Amino acid sequence: MIADFTDHWLLYCSIPLVAALIGWVTKIVAVQMLMYPLEFRGIPPWLGWQGVIPRSAPRMATIAVDLMFGKLIDPQDIIARIDIAELTTRLREPLNAGVDYMVREMMMKYQPRLWVNMPEAGRRAIIERAQRDLPQLIEDIVVDLRTNLDQVMDLRGMAISALVDDKSLLVEMVRRVGRNELRFIVRSGLIFGTVLGFVQMITWAFTHSSWLMPAFGGFTGLVTDWLALQMIFRPIRPVGIGPLRWQGLFHKRRDEVCTDYGDLIATEILTPARILEAVLNGERADRLASILDHHVTEFLDLQTGPAKPLMLMVARESYTALQRDAVTFVLDHVRAAANSGFDRHAIEALDVRSLVIEKTKQLSDDEYEGLLRPAFKQDEWKLVAIGAVLGFLVGELQVHVLLT
After folding, report:
1. Mean pLDDT across 245-254
2. pTM
3. 43: enclosing H helix or E strand
């Protein structure tokens, strides 16, 4: 055996190196197959592959959103964070400009002769009165939204749709929350593969069995994949003796994960732009229009004051059309504000990030693990099996090299 090792020392030394390579390559492949491709590639339904996460997008999105709204976020908490005084102060300039434009446009459309013949001071008085009363209109609308939030928006459905429709966002969610764990999976292949490679080298020296290399290759790919996945989540609490202690990586860096998760939710999923989109164009948008119609009608009644009966008597249809146009104008103005810097201010005002971080830190260990575990749990056996198959094939190639 010693003579054989001396004569073929280079081949013997290559065994742990190849084993390390098997462990490393199989982990890279496993991580990539976890996330990519986003859509099925191949000949459906069986010959091909789609990333585990994208393929399970509806299930994973539902799990993630159920945790998000079941344990972390109450939609009422989000809208309760809206400071009406601060909101109207931030939007005072664009709102005043919008009211100025709206009054002039509406009057020219429905009462052009009256508006043209009116002194500029009278026009300015009408505009300034509307600008003065606008903050009260905003407050009334926000209070009504708080009371009837579930009727106006479906944040849960919005979040699920965002993750299912944009699979890259779901992948990014797993990547950002579990980036250290995914990196550990890849690096662990080198370490575990090298250790098993030395065992493989010694066993080969004794046996020279042609089945040894593929068997060890498959075993290396299988065990290192399985062990890496276990070390991410187990143990939950630090265990060990003296200074030698170990804790599942995901649990060990909980504070960092909570911060990353809060950033992701606030900047990618529950953004003011997405919330506005759900409110303005979602399945319940008609209910928002109904609320706006009620408040805008009251606002117009306040502006017309004693002149309203006369206006209804002279031009009822015009007054009704004016109400409809005013509601449309408000909706258009909200959409325009969302596309002109409002989103950044709203992110600061709602501060969903701090809310999510705070609530995530309060999760139980099992609930916290649910932030990442669903990405692996159901289909992790496939990743382990792929590692075993790749390891077996590389081991088969290795034995041919050793025996030639």
Report:
1. 82
2. 0.67
3. strand 41-43
